[in-house]
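User: Continuing from earlier, I have the next pair ready.

Assistant: Great, send them over.

User: Here they are, in order.

Assistant: Folding the first of the pair now:
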Amino acid sequence: PLPAPSRNRGSAPDPAPQAPEGLTNAPVVAVAGGAAFTFSYAENTELLAAAGADVVSFDPLRDEALPLGTRGVVIGGGFPEVYAPELSANEALRKAVAELALSGAPVAAECAGLLYLGRSLDGLPMCGVLDAEARMTKRLTLGYRDAVALTDNVLAPAGARMRGHEFHRTVIEPGAGDEPAWGMHRPERRVEGFVRGNVHASYLHTHWAASPGTAARFVERCRG
């Protein structure tokens, strides 16, 4: 089984390990936390730091700006549908995320992060980075997935295979962009997620330790 995700119970993630000494180009990678984004693998953050990133937490519910000098953003899972009104009301932060994404900075978003990057969630405005709308449903989508990267992106080269899982009660329409993030091979064949420039967003939760080059690839893209 996959390692248990960290759950911060409403606070930002614990500080990540410091980047190795001697690195003169440690890009700031902002990792979403707070009550709306409580589902993440601690190892992913540790791997970012080990790859040379200066990992800094931010709370999309409370912070009105991204951390100073942010060069990349990681937005994991959680329950944004519970906090949709508050996330939507923080217009300054939504605009900051959108501007960074549209500038070409790397952004990796999973599940809750995917919803946050969309145009709207249950009719409430979100970041608008992706031309997609999300809504809550009663149906639970749950299970492991075998996936392959369909295009070269900030997390993986085209053709790379990864295993992850889905756990959500939402749908996003459309379910995939013109450049889908993944081709799924289990339990059924389908395409899913979005790649837009240096933005990678999908429902798939992935543990980057299973593919050690993932964090290093993301950090290298942040360095430009």
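And the other member of the pair:
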Amino acid sequence: MENELLGCPDCEEPTSFRLEIHGQQEKATFSLIDGQPKVVESGSVYVQGHDPERICCQSCGLVMTEDDLVVV
């Protein structure tokens, strides 16, 4: 079976999604800004997983699960 792109059921086209991820940030640098520590520079993010129950379409904002994705 060939790879098929999955997309939002409302948009019915390939789109980007926002995911809630589990992972780690490499090489973060902090500075004090307005008296508060803030990340000002960071390296790669290593994703170890994501929440399949909370996927947000970047085009229309629909929040869905992996099971809601459709072939586009």
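Worth noting for the second one:
The chain has a mean pLDDT of 93. The CA atoms of residues 28 and 42 lie 4 Å apart.
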